[in-house]
């Protein structure tokens, strides 16, 4: 398990300038966990984990769908794809907003 300092170093390592300004700031509501729902970050991590498991175990999915029904598998796969697509759109928006920071001049 990482120490707190090692975790911070891993997080900020490639961003030394940003670290000096942003470390210790609170994340906006996008990252805040509300008691009954998780944050975008938690949701994204879970989606990537499930997608990786699904892709890595396609043969098992095929076998299970063959015996349990293809409709259920296709329904879940479509929901997963749709949620990943939504997260991708959100990340694209973030990338555009971050790119706009290049416009911060003196």
Short characterization:
It contains 5 helices and no strands. The protein has 106 residues and is an all-alpha fold.
Furnish the topology, listing elements before pairings:
Blueprint: H1 4-12, H2 16-22, H3 40-56, H4 58-68, H5 70-100
Provide an overview of this structure:
It is a single chain. With 106 residues, this protein is an all-alpha fold. The protein is built from five helices and no strands. It has helices at 4-12, 16-22, 40-56, 58-68, 70-100. Helix 3 (40-56) packs across helix 5 (70-100). The chain is elongated, with a radius of gyration of 19 Å. The model has no long low-confidence stretch (mean pLDDT 89).
Number of E strands: 0
Span of the ends, CA to CA: 42 Å
- Helical content (DSSP H or I, runs of 4+): over 70%
- Count of helical segments? 5
- What's the gyration radius in Å? 19 Å
Low-confidence sequence ranges: none
Mean pLDDT: 89
Structural class: mainly alpha
Question: Biggest sheet: strands, sense, closure?
Answer: none
How would you sum up the global shape?
elongated
Give the H and E element order: HHHHH
């Amino acid at each position: 398990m990482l120490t707190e300092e090692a975790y911070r170093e891993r997080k900020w390592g490639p961003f030394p300038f940003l670290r000096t300004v942003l470390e210790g700031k609170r994340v906006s509501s996008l990252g805040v966990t509300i008691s009954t729902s998780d944050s975008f970050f938690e949701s994204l991590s879970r989606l990537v984990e499930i997608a990786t498991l699904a892709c890595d175990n396609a043969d098992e999915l095929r076998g299970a769908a063959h015996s349990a029904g293809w409709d259920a598998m296709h329904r879940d796969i479509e929901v997963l794809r749709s949620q990943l697509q939504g997260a991708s759109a959100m990340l694209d928006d973030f990338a555009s907003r971050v790119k706009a920071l290049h416009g911060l001049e003196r």
